Amino acid sequence: MLLGLDPLLTPDLLYALASAGHGDRIAIVDANFPAAANANRLIRLPGADATAALRAVLSVLPVDDFVPDPCQVMQVVGDPDAVPEPVADFTRLLQAAGTAPPHAVPRQDFYALARQAFAVVATGERRLYGNIIVTKGVIR
Length: 140
Description:
By secondary structure, this protein is of the alpha/beta class. Helices cover 29% and strands 18% of the residues. The protein has one domain: RbsD-like domain (RbsD-like fold, 3-Layer(aba) Sandwich), CATH 3.40.1650.10. The protein has four helices and six strands. A six-stranded mixed beta sheet has the order 2-5-1-6-3-4. The chain is globular, with a radius of gyration of 14 Å.
């Protein structure tokens, strides 16, 4: 155990977050997401929801402020303007961290971004559309 760290920041997750460089992406995905098929590095947090995982990640990871949309979420199929409950939660966390709201992208585009991500964090999130990709920034 380490002082001051969210308990969801497991050794594997901390290693991935520390190893990622500026511009690398971390995908935090729900229980329905095909994580094993779309991950270069797969980290499992089966007992955690995606909001708690994002909160833990944001506690140690700077979000990129050099790009217009450093965070992406998956659009609702058939209703691209809908804002699912997990996305509303993500938006509140990002705003509290001083980061812009996430940009919604079509489902297949989200899958493509996840395949390119430095790591995929598979959570136990059961709410639909509990998926977000965060681009790592720099510490000034």
